[in-house]
Specification:
66% helix; 118 residues; single chain; mainly alpha; 0% strand
């Protein structure tokens, strides 16, 4: 996969993570201190940040899942595994990653997985 595309997706993932954290910070002053510790690492450390349990409890379940998916995607970038389907191992098409930057499966595998759990 093209390194420029991966860098673009990393920037987008970091932007979305920051957006979630800023939204949470706006909810109360107590959360601002927690979020400051999460955001304190440089970009290379962002993927390895362990988010405090209190922060996850304060997040809505949807935001918590998205934040975890974003952190997982950032970790895959740092492990040079980003953009590969975890099920079949093929490249996930760039348009899918642009739509869902934290995607872990290609569309056929994700569809099959979804049908399996219905």
């Amino acid at each position: 996969m093209d390194q420029m595309f991966i860098k673009k997706m990393e920037d987008e993932l970091l932007r979305q993570k920051k957006e979630i954290l800023q939204s949470l910070a706006g909810q109360s002053d107590d959360m601002k201190g927690l979020i400051k510790t999460v955001e304190s690492g440089d970009e290379a450390d962002v993927a390895s940040d362990q988010i405090d349990r209190t922060l996850l409890d304060a997040l809505g379940s949807q935001d918590a899942k998205r934040l975890q998916a974003i952190d997982n995607a950032l970790e895959r970038i740092h492990q040079n595994k980003y953009g590969r389907c975890l099920k079949c191992g093929k490249d996930i098409p760039e348009p899918r990653l642009e739509a869902v930057p934290w995607a872990v499966m290609c569309v056929p595998c994700a569809s099959a997985e979804e049908k399996r759990f219905r």
